[in-house]
Model the fold of this input.
Amino acid sequence: MPFPIPPPSANPAVRTRAPRIGLLGIMQPLYDDMIPGITERQAAYAARVAERLAGVAEWTVAPPVRGRADAESAMRAFEADGLDGVMIVMLTYGPSLRVTRALSRSDLPLALANIQPDPAVTAEWDMDDMTYNQGIHGAQDTANALVRADTPFEVITGEWRSPDFAARVDRWARAARAVSDLRRLRVGVFGYPMNGMGDARVDETALLRRLGPEVHVIAPGALHRTMADLPEETIRSLMEWEDRSFRVDERLSKEEREDHARMQSGIERLLEEAECGAYSTHFDAIGEDGRFARLPMAAASTLMAQGYGFAGEGDVLAASIVYAGHRLAGDGHFTEMYAMDFPGDSILMSHMGEGNWRVAREDEPIRLIKRPLGIGGLGDPPTILFRYRPGPATLASLVSLGGERFRLVVAEGEVLDSPELPSLEMPYGRFRPVSGVRDCMDAWLRAGGTHHMVMNTGHRAEDWRVLCRLVDIEHVRV
Done:
């Protein structure tokens, strides 16, 4: 069955958009007298590269960089335009010291595209052709300068017309977009984090400096006031959308559904006002407040489906990586490892009731159920129930190692087409790691992988590796 279209979000932080990439073509004036018109010829080559990659990103092509002033001007323009990254292309050999300062001082994610106009060296080549296609040693000079400056960058060598090259640029461009969005991210935390849960704790200033997310605390009282101020039309429209989109449990009362709809709409309004692209709630912070009737379970599921990052229990690290999962690979899903199934060499994945229904099976209806829940000490929270879609999947956990040291632990595997668990009233699925449960879990635990994580459909370890390279954090595949 087709997935429902989420209610429209007014928050620009969660809108889907193509990566916006600058192309910086580098050469030098040395060859102008030798080959008249070479600058214009190579500028046209840069334009063709961008045109070829039009389906990968929105491109801004700078005029050919022929000196230090050109490089610094082009990079300032890219930064002023709010681009997500810069792909460097050697149009001829260009000395690295003319671009080193501009590149090493920029916060924009970089890729060095080691390409040349012609794919093959032929007997017809003359010295002009040698000059047009000599970018490789300019790439070596520039890469050496970036390495010596401790500047992170990705390298993409290939034939620029090939599908493989486009696929690798696409992976880097998505990673650059995710990195840029992380650096702009605000994570709203409603109340306080779960007491005693250590793997979610992080130095917030170190997180801001290293990766970019800023923590924004939202008082539960603000949610209560916002819920009370919402117009009835907002609540009615959300409930009508749910009626069209889900199989709604007849046991849910009008009061339960209206209260849930007010919580979801109130959370989203506060996130919009604070320009937060991700958030986290903790059941005790809601339950102990005394003014709420139930926990916002269904709200988390639909807000994730709209593109918000989410994590339970006040976990800023997991909320941030779910948000990055949206930007990097699409449809980030918050989950945790619940139990191991050794006979099936798999792990039962679930959480208390939150899950992105964009990863649901397509052959079963997504249900909005009445669901008893003792945690939080409140009334039954309407919960969106589904099973994960079978097929390739990837788990990723963001680990704080102290100070500004972070690690991403990644496991590829498969969501199994496993039997239903009729008593489990929360989103779930069974994940079989490529490396097997025993080896995967041994390595996960040795690497300090956390118990909250993002899941994406597809094999995404290489996508996450590129992101880690761009932000210069450790990538551990288990």
